């Protein structure tokens, strides 16, 4: 009888998160704004970070954006530990934050905003308006083909178009991780759909997105996973397809995992509706 040779098995490769915030702690005086929170994000994924006012979600994400250093914990980018002291460090690592106010220069056009503070210049040292307009046009064709108002001051643009400009600015400078703070706040249905299309395009390009939102409907429309915070702690992270909106609301309000939620809890959540 001939012995059968069995090829050695190769261990399954584990995906490395694009970004991981591990055991992050941030205090202001005696207040533990973020208390030992760990979340991660993979390429081409949207992770929604949700919770009530004062839950700690903005403080947590500010540590990644370089707006406020953590007291302890570690940030990893592509599996490597990194140190982020300020927004410049974050940008150098491919992290860009798009806050609700967008920080756009209202009186200049899309190209001027995309290259604001990082303008292209000619070999004579003058502003290369032609190159910046061309680069912006090509970028918008990729991100939002319906965007045509390249020479219009951004103050005259719709909310969805303004989001397009802010996103284009981040993506042009090689952002791999986007923090989006309430990207559809105060937008109408058509503009919200435009932002959703943008996020879908960003995901297809392998960009990872942390989405901060109070709108549970937006969260379920846009996110792949949902991380819930309450009083500075992480309640848990769930796959959107495996939970209901009521279960996520129970996590936000009651701090209970989906398997711990009773019918009475759900009824309590809807009292006063």
- The spatial strand order of the largest sheet comes to 6-7-8-3-9-10
Q: Give a short account of the largest sheet.
A: 6 strands, mixed
Average pLDDT figure:
88
> End-to-end span in angstroms?
76 Å
**How many β strands by DSSP?**
10
- Return the structural class: alpha/beta
Question: Which consecutive residue ranges, at least 5 long each, have pLDDT under 50?
Answer: 1-13
What proportion strand? 15-25%
Q: Give the helix level as a range of percent.
A: 25-40%
Radius of gyration: 21 Å
Order of helices and strands: EEEHEEHEHHHEHEHEEHH
Shape: globular
Count of DSSP-assigned helices: 9
Describe the structure.
The chain has 273 residues and is of the alpha/beta class. The protein is 33% helix and 23% strand. The protein contains 9 helices and 10 strands. The strands form 2 sheets. It has a 6-stranded mixed β-sheet with strand order 6-7-8-3-9-10, sandwiched between helices. Helix 4 (129-143) packs across helix 5 and helix 5 runs parallel beside helix 6 (189-204). The longest helix has 16 residues, at 189-204. Mean pLDDT is 88; it is low at 1-13.
Features:
single chain; alpha/beta; six-stranded mixed beta sheet; disordered N terminus
């Amino acid at each position: 009888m001939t012995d059968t040779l069995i090829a050695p098995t190769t261990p399954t490769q584990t995906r490395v998160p694009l970004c991981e915030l591990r055991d992050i702690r941030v205090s202001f005086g005696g207040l533990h704004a973020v208390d030992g929170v760990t979340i991660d994000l993979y390429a081409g994924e949207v992770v929604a970070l949700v919770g009530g006012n004062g839950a700690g979600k903005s403080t947590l994400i500010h540590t990644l954006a370089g707006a406020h250093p953590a007291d302890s914990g570690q940030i990893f980018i592509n599996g490597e530990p990194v140190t982020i002291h300020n927004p410049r460090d974050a940008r150098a690592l491919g992290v860009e934050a798009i806050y609700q106010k967008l920080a756009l220069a209202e009186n200049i056009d899309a190209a001027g905003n995309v290259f604001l503070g990082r303008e292209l210049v000619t070999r004579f040292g003058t502003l290369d308006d032609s190159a910046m307009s061309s680069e912006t046009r090509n970028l918008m064709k990729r991100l939002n083909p319906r965007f045509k108002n390249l020479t219009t001051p951004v103050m005259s643009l719709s909310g969805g178009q303004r989001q397009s400009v802010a996103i284009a600015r981040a993506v042009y400078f090689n952002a791999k991780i986007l923090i989006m703070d309430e990207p559809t706040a105060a937008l109408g249905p058509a503009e919200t759909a435009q932002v959703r299309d943008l996020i879908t395009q960003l995901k297809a390009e392998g960009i990872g997105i942390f989405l901060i939102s109070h709108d549970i409907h937006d969260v379920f429309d846009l996110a792949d996973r949902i991380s819930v915070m309450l009083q500075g702690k992480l309640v848990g992270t769930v796959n959107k397809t495996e939970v209901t909106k009521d279960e996520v609301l129970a996590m936000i309000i009651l701090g209970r995992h989906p398997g711990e939620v009773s019918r009475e809890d759900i009824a309590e959540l809807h009292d006063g509706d």
